Amino acid sequence: MQNTTLNFNVTEIRQNFPNLHIKVQGKPLIYLDNAATTLKPQCVIDAIDQHYSQETSNVHRGVHYLSEQATAKYEKSREKVKNFINASDSSEIIFTRGTTESINMVALSYGRAFLNKEDEIIISEMEHHSNIVPWQMLCEERGCILRVIPMNDDGDIIFEEFEKLLSSKTKLVSIVYTSNSLGTVNPVKKIIDSAHKHNALVLLDGAQTVSHRQVDVQALNCDFFVFSGHKLFGPTGVGVLYGKKELLDKMPPIYGGGDMIASVTFEKTTYNHLPYKFEAGTPNIAGVIGLGAAIDYINTLDWNALGEYEAELLNYGTQILKNISDLKLIGTAKHKAPVLSFFLPDVHPHDLGTLVNDDGVAIRTGHHCTQPVMKHFNIPATARASLSIYNTKKEIDILAESILRAKDIFK
After folding, report:
1. N or C: which end of the chain has fewer CB within 10 A?
2. Which residues of 62-86 are buried (b: 16+ CB within 10 A; e: fewer)?
3. 109-129 pLDDT, tens digit each
């Protein structure tokens, strides 16, 4: 079966990911859980190993060789992230533990400092819990009001309803770029432009976007952009908060400790400049270096070819699953990332996940941290196959065969 599109050779790409060479239940691993976390190429593993085996040191202020090496690579990764999302300055890149912490930091810093009673925050019905709960907590603390953009049964936000929610009270719109449970790619530029007309800021959750399409934060003109390294073929425990410099400059730090200070006395502390005022304590140095290596890796790929190949996989998978009787696809938006959420009326998703695992197939089952999405469709959970650059049509065929076997068992 053909697995090459333009300059995109999947056979070669698969050689870069050692996890793909293991066996599960005596069968080759078929990894279709990329929305939970992506596999890591050997170059990322090597970069982390090199840090721990040859360059272990803390960053900043050290004048010895190891510290200078670690600091140089750490800050080089910041520059790589800046270029990757086309930020205007590396000081706009804050390293965090992941998307969840990045969103919480905006809520705790910007929200506490600048949002007041009856100010309104808008999110959408398809948000991950990480983009719901921090805002609920802020609303409880500050007396703000949380508004929700509804979606239709295809999994698209209803844009007209969003526009109705916008008003002079709207201070922040925090919305997912790409839904983790539906695959919907939201019209974020249109959302940003509409929000800005009402002088509202916009935070984009880009966790499920950065491995599938090129991001340009200046072209989008978003105010904040957040993502996690482990969704981008990088390590866990590292993420990014991008913010426009003029916003970050006026936002107070939320963590106190080393590296985020300029001077400390018992009477008063002054804070470091960007980005360090938001990076208290010893950071995840190896994780940041690994993220830099992951960006180096994805930069070797052709984004247009990558997009075409993943669209081809999504279309193929959609048709294959549609051919399975009784199977219901959840999330059929026109603009989608390669995510296939589905359920069988007579097979609980957890049972299905267990059975396909017997064939070496890894999928995710559950509510995917999007319980409001499940409530919208009146279901408790789905099975989710999420595809990436190293997946193939043959793997989708094996998934379908495995689903059919599960159906037979539950007849």
Report:
1. C
2. eeeeebebbbebbbebbebbbebbe
3. 999 999 999 999 999 999 999
